[in-house]
Amino acid sequence: MPNFINNHPKRAPFRRIGVMGRAGKASIIETLNELIGLLQTRALSIVIDTETAAIEGMSIDFDQIDGVKLKIVPRQKMGDHCDLVIVVGGDGSMLQAASVMAGTDVPVLGINRGRLGFLADVNPDELIEKVKQVLDGQYWLVERFLLKFQIVQNDADGKPSDLVIHEDVALNDIVLHAGKSVHTIDFKLKINNNDVYRQHADGLIVATPTGSTAYALSAGGPIIHPTLDAICLVPMHPHTLSSRPLVVPGSSHIVINIHNDNRTQPMVGADGKASAPLENDQTLVIAKHDKTLLLLHPDNYSFFEACRTKLNWNLYSEEFSLDK
What we know:
Blueprint: E1 7-8, E2 16-21, H1 26-41, E3 45-49, H2 50-53, E4 70-73, H3 78-81, E5 84-89, H4 91-101, E6 108-112, H5 127-135, E7 139-154, E8 160-170, E9 173-177, E10 185-191, E11 194-201, E12 203-207, H6 215-218, E13 230-236, E14 246-249, E15 254-258, E16 267-270, E17 276-277, E18 282-298, H7 303-310
Parallel strand pairs: 2-3, 2-5, 3-4, 5-6
Antiparallel strand pairs: 1-7, 7-8, 7-18, 9-12, 9-16, 10-11, 10-15, 12-13, 13-14, 15-18, 16-17
């Protein structure tokens, strides 16, 4: 049994399979074509988004597009036409899919053609075996929560108003950073209306458990099991030796303000997407999003095995074999 406790019950057999990927590597095109070929042998309905269908080298016979066994739809509409979406690419491709599929109740499975693949966890050489298992009902569904941030204009008293300047959603992390500047940011942090600290740092990473193995990990943050309802806050190069990552409840309401003494232009971005400026007379508010993402894992998936293999915990496999 996998090490997940908040799994969802199995569903009726998947019949309408969405396929998503992105251009950039010949290996991605090869795997996309292999996947489509497998789905065709199972006589399943295949739904391809317009961006994926436009990738040069895709083996799609456009004369066979009948709206039943094969259809092409806008990426934003994938959730309306599928009961499972399979993404070919790296974790970045999975993050793009998450922004579209969150809240649709359609599970997402990832075939890894990237570097690490914590989200896209099926290896390409296992594609046939693992996808067949999933189609035969051998899988686990796990719900992952997302974060939402809003940049809000302050009123004349310096309090957040109802005017939202910018907002976005993240599966991995929301990052306050200094953009192109080499100066640290001077900011104040509150959690649930409690003062936490005033910090001088290159920025702050606010990560979900899903994102704890991404950017936050490279900044010295903890690895958080993806089933935990928690948020991690990791300072980036803080100008104090006593500053450490914080792990707070997932229900936390996080507020960040830029101090008047700040000398650079802070920026805020979600999951590596385009960032927005945060001014001194504005407030950054971060909280759990009301939408979630359903990730589908093959039956034998283990988060700890993923950590061992992708983070090289067992680099010397013979000396540290778990079987001895």
